[in-house]
Amino acid sequence: MGYVEREQHEAITVQPVALGLGVFAFTFCMDLFYVQYLRAVATERPARAATFSVLTHLNGVVNISAVLHDRRYLAAILLGAWMGTYFTVWWSHRHTAR
To answer: What is the pTM of this model?
Structure first.
């Protein structure tokens, strides 16, 4: 029985780091999708806007369920949001400047 408890404890200590990285990645993608959604709305492309809206909300649900029980993941969400938006605007500006 002690061996099983030790295995469970080891799995628990690895999980928060992996979950934190996953939350960061999902938030980064969520902001990519959200910026694309706003562009699609601004250019009046309804199907594209609807698709990016679904992707944005799906990512939001995943993040909410990850943070629901542990507030430590809020930092990963905030960092992912900032970096996702910054990267998307930077990438777009870089490609339109050519």
So the answer is: 0.69
